[in-house]
Design a protein that fits this description.
Length: 1073
């Protein structure tokens, strides 16, 4: 079949080439026609015109056209373009351009295709294609058909996937798969466009290591001779650096005034009596950009233990080797001559560092905890370099979700969702990451089998909090594998949805029962795994045979399966008897099970508590967002942000910290864990000597910081955050011990950073974390659940996507969330679709919600936004962003009125590039009113680039008049989508605009539609009609032919069932007699 299709394709290409050559020959002849005798040409014109007209009517031949000089010039240009395209390598884009050029040549020459002459070829192609499709359909097996349906469903799921894990899940676009990673140029301007992933102060030390003895005796030289020969390059450096991690690069800032001071000795000073020295408070410094470096295949970062020469105590540091990046993207020169002004700003050591192509040394932070965090950040960049190298070796394109998750702090979340499984690339990623734990590992929609999953999990870190392997090719064997990996990796949340686990079989039922009865994981997701009533009976039987079930409270979700009331009763009875401390069994999106049926089940199963059955989705527990959490609990949570800050303490009750009770600022190390802000008392290192080879000063704490609240560790539970005079004012209740928080003492800390960017990052993170605590308090007070989008956004504090769609949000939580959004300059997209937003909610939306950001998308589709709503407040809310690339208002009942036209006009006035008004009930009155108001306006709307008006009822005349008035005043408007308005063509406009009549919007809400797995159901066994009916007679076929046909169908069913059982690993059933 493939050979036949290739032959037809070649014939079609040859015919098109012949047609183009003939047209080009005819055009060349017409070019030479003006050079002939004009009189002879005029005499023949009358005869030839009548003959060609008759031939064109009969055979579709083109008529002779006299071209002007401009048309001749245009024709020659098209010919040159076509000749150039023929010389290029064949590809789809080149073929499309060739067809366009051919079409333009035909239009210019006034020619039409010869339809009748090529009709037999077209009919033959149609017949051949129909036969090929029919034969292909016959050759398709049930497994192949099921696989195609599965891929189509997965593609739709990926199109509707809107959330991102810790701001790192890339949005999967329609028809393009996962977004590809685009490497920025190696310039300072491009690095500054990327967000700051981590920032802090480091101490760089380089040692003289060139005097190491080599293998040959004659190559060895004394150290003094090496210093004389190599010059200043071998001098040891010791300097403070402010380092920012932006994407794959590290930007280095230095303080030009931070130079070592030499001690001045005098006899008078030695003879004086020793007096107490007053150390002035340290002030923030001004940092200036010096250079950039990357950790690629040429660099490394590893942990080392160094020793303080004064005290002899060891401390942790990072040995680093990296490649420097020149300011203009070129390779750095070996030596660089600075101008007098520039040279005076930096020291010789700083200029030597910037002029080097590669550098190596030892860096260390102020505390060992921060040093280890920096090591993790650098290892993430190194893993990214190895990921790019592995993709290059295996001819794969690097993808955005993987790159973004490796840039994340840690990285604490590895996002491989939607990324095709590749064994070598996955091994390169996990073997290069050296982490004690992972918050989440997303491996869904990867077409991965059980063997591939085992290969992937063999190289992950020691602990994984959340593992998502949804929508893969995992069978019942994965249950035994995960039963071994869950205790080993400490997995607390396991998502196995959208996999065929064969729950009706013995192995599948036993594996599910063991997973439900085991201690790990605490949350088990078994949605859309083809659990039926028979599977519930098999699982219940296996649960009764378990000898030592776990006593840990557990949550299991079996929603979106084919479970009825009978199967639920059997399963609930087994769970209630076997697992007395079972937490909740979630049954979302099952039409047969409602609150009434659950009440009946609870009556028949008295051991089951009402709280153990729920029709809602399981709530994934978030990290600590409760201000009443114990300090010991907060200390066990990961640090969201950490670094050195200047602080002024102000106690409102007793003066509880005597050494630093004044208002003078001092330097300390801070960490944000949960809702607690912790402060470690570390002496500042304001002065140092170049001759020293250690970073530790005498009297400074060594080793790890003690986890006790006293002189070394202080903390407050954050209650309010504000920005006052370039300082952050943080107030909260004082932490007195590991188990108690003061109810009366409230402390106020005034924080100031060494750079304004670092201060802004701290203020943003503290504000978002405080918003999460307030929303959690409101949820507990009103007895409602914390919105999942709010919890995800406020726990990580580094998400660029706020996903609130699909679930209503209370007014209290809505107000608090957007109070934090106003300070979030990292935010890129907001999803507020299907939230039932009405006039009361719209009035509460802040008018300056997005004043600090440039939004890529704001989705307000499928809400209750109408004329009666507060449209003025909505305009201020949507238009508050610096720029909004896409505003979606699809599915809102706006209606057909002049008020809606005024609302749309006010939206266009703001900085919105693509405005989507699909299926909003717009009509002729709206178009006329908008046309009138636009023509009355004398100003232009320069930001609008696309307008979508699909699925409305605007007539063609009204649409034409509205666009004629709108296009001249929108110079950047390039695309208009008009599908579903009752017409398929529209006239020309004053300016060339792309008019699209293809459907590109969703008619139903994506968030509310439940996803059900498409599985191949086993056909029912055909029973030969030999059993007696209820009336007493045996049922027999009416004729011998029908009886023979029934036997034939039974034999075919047995063969198909044997093949199906061998494919899915189950025992085929037998046909009853």
């Amino acid at each position: 079949m493939k050979d036949l299709e290739e032959q037809e394709f070649r014939k079609r290409l040859e015919e098109e080439e012949e047609e183009v050559q003939s047209r080009l020959r005819e055009a060349r002849e017409r070019e030479l026609a003006p050079l002939l005798d004009l009189g002879e040409t005029s005499r023949r014109a009358g005869k030839e015109s009548s003959e060609e007209a008759s031939e064109e009517e009969e055979e579709g031949e083109p008529s002779e056209v006299v071209l002007s000089e401009e048309q001749m010039q245009r024709l020659q240009e098209l010919k040159n373009v076509y000749r150039r395209l023929r010389k290029e390598a064949p590809s789809d884009e080149v073929e499309a351009e060739k067809k366009k050029v051919k079409k333009q040549i035909a239009q210019l020459l006034g020619r039409r295709r010869k339809k009748k002459k090529k009709a037999h070829l077209k009919e033959a192609r149609q017949k051949t294609g129909a036969e090929a499709e029919g034969s292909l359909e016959i050759l398709k097996t049930e497994e192949r058909i099921e696989e195609e349906k599965r891929k189509e469903r997965i593609r739709k799921v990926l199109q509707t996937q809107r959330g991102d894990a810790s701001s790192r899940l890339a949005q999967v676009m329609e028809g393009r798969g996962v977004a590809e990673y685009k490497a920025p140029q190696e310039t300072f301007e491009e690095w500054m466009k990327l967000p700051v992933d981590y920032c802090g102060r480091l101490l760089l030390e380089t040692r003289d290591t060139s005097a190491v003895k080599t293998g040959r005796m004659d190559a060895w030289k004394p150290p003094m001779m090496l210093r004389k020969s190599t010059g200043a390059r071998e001098e040891s450096l010791c300097m403070f650096l402010m380092v920012e991690a932006r994407g794959p690069a590290f930007l280095v800032y230095v303080c030009p005034d931070d130079k070592p001071r030499k001690k001045k000795w005098s006899l008078a000073a030695l003879c004086r009596k020793k007096t107490s020295k007053h150390v002035p408070p340290e002030e923030p410094k001004n940092w200036k950009y010096l250079c950039s470096f990357v950790l690629d295949n040429t660099g490394e970062a590893s942990e080392v233990s160094m020793t303080n020469e004064q005290s002899g105590a060891p401390y942790k540091a990072i040995r680093i080797s990296a490649r420097m990046i020149a300011p203009g993207g070129e390779s750095p020169p070996t030596s660089k001559v600075e101008s007098p002004d520039e040279g005076s700003a930096f020291s010789k050591a700083q200029l030597a560092l910037r002029s080097s192509a590669f550098f190596s040394g030892v860096v260390s932070a102020d505390t060992e905890a921060e040093t280890l965090e920096w090591l993790v950040v650098m290892n993430g960049r190194k893993a990214f370099a190895r990921y790019l190298s592995a993709c290059k070796d295996h001819s794969q394109q690097p993808l955005e979700p993987v790159a973004a998750s490796l840039f994340n702090l840690g990285p604490r979340e590895i996002v491989l969702q939607g990324v095709p499984f590749h064994k070598e690339i996955d091994t390169a990623i996990f073997t290069s990451i050296n982490l004690p734990y992972l918050d989440a590992l997303y491996c869904g929609w990867r077409e991965m089998d059980t063997k591939g999953l085992v290969t992937c999990l063999q190289h992950v870190p020691r602990a994984v909090r959340k593992l998502d392997v949804s929508a893969n090719k995992l069978g019942s064997s994965v249950l035994k594998v995960m039963a071994d990996f869950c205790p080993k990796l400490g997995i607390s949340q396991l998502f196995l949805a959208e996999n065929y686990l064969a729950a009706e079989d013995v192995a599948g039922a036993r594996g599910i029962a063991n997973m439900v009865a085991s201690a790990d994981p605490l949350l088990l997701d078994l949605r859309r795994v083809d659990i039926t009533d028979e599977a519930c009976r098999a699982i219940a039987a296996e649960l009764r045979n378990i000898d030592q079930p776990s006593l840990v409270p557990k949550t299991v979700s079996v929603g979106e399966n084919s479970i009825s009331t009978k199967g639920l009763k059997v399963l609930a009875t087994a769970i209630a008897k076997t697992l007395p401390r079972f937490k909740v069994l979630c049954l979302p999106n099952i039409p047969q099970l409602t609150q009434g049926t659950l009440s009946e089940v609870l009556k028949e199963v008295p051991l089951m508590r009402p709280t153990q059955l729920s029709t809602g989705s399981p709530a994934c527990p978030f990290r600590s967002l409760d201000e009443s959490e114990l300090p010991e609990r907060c200390l066990s949570l990961p640090a969201v942000l950490s670094g050195r800050l200047f602080v002024e303490t102000q106690a409102t009750a007793a003066d509880w910290y005597a050494p630093q009770a004044g208002t003078d600022p001092f330097l300390a190390f801070f960490e944000l864990r949960g809702s607690a802000l912790l402060r470690y008392e570390v002496p500042p290192r304001s002065t140092f000597s170049v001759s020293k080879k250690s970073k530790r000063l005498s009297g400074s704490p060594l080793g790890t910081l003690s986890r006790s609240f006293g002189t070394g560790l202080c903390g407050i539970m954050v209650s309010s955050v504000s920005l006052v005079d370039a300082k952050i004012r943080v107030a909260g209740k004082k932490i007195t011990s590991m188990q108690s928080i003061s109810k009366t003492e409230v402390e106020v800390w005034m924080l100031e950073a060494e750079s304004q960017e670092f201060l802004n990052e701290w203020f943003r993170v503290l504000t978002i974390r405080r918003v999460g605590v307030e929303c959690n308090t409101i949820a507990r007070t009103t007895k409602e659940a914390l919105h999942p989008g709010v919890g995800q956004y406020c726990t990580s504090c580094f998400r660029t996507h706020l996903d609130l769609g699909g679930q209503p949000l209370g007014l209290g939580q809505l107000t608090r969330v957007f109070g934090g959004v106003c300070e979030d300059f990292r935010l890129k997209s907001v999803d507020m679709s299907s939230m039932a937003l009405d006039a009361n909610v719209l009035k509460r939306l802040p008018r300056t919600a997005f004043a600090l950001v440039e939004l890529q998308e704001l989705d307000l589709s499928f809400n209750s936004i109408s004329i009666n709503a507060a449209l003025g407040d909505l305009v201020e809310f949507c238009g508050s962003a610096k720029i909004c690339a896409r505003l979606v208002l699809d599915g809102n009942p706006l209606g057909d009125s002049e008020e809606v036209a005024l609302f749309v006009l006010r939206l266009i006035e703001h900085r919105i590039q693509r405005l989507c008004l699909n299926a909003c009930g717009l009509g002729g009155s709206f178009a006329a009113a908008l046309c009138k108001r636009v023509t009355e306006e004398s100003r232009q709307f320069p930001t609008l680039t696309a307008l979508e008006l699909q699925g409305n009822a605007i007539p063609e005349e009204g649409m034409k008049a509205m666009l004629d008035g709108l296009i001249p005043r929108c110079p950047a408007l390039k695309e208009v989508c008009l599908f579903g308005n009752g017409f398929e063509t529209i006239g020309r406009f004053q300016r060339a605009v792309q008019v699209n009549f293809t459907k590109t919007f969703y008619e139903t809400p994506r968030k509310c539609a439940p996803l059900k797995r498409l599985v191949t159901k086993k056909p029912k066994a055909l029973r030969p009609p030999t059993e007696a009916k209820s009336g007493g007679e045996a049922a027999k076929p009416k004729s011998p032919d029908e009886y023979a046909m029934a036997q034939k169908e039974a034999l075919e069913f047995l063969k198909n069932q044997d093949a199906t059982g061998a494919r899915i690993g189950s025992t085929p059933r037998t046909v009853g007699t």
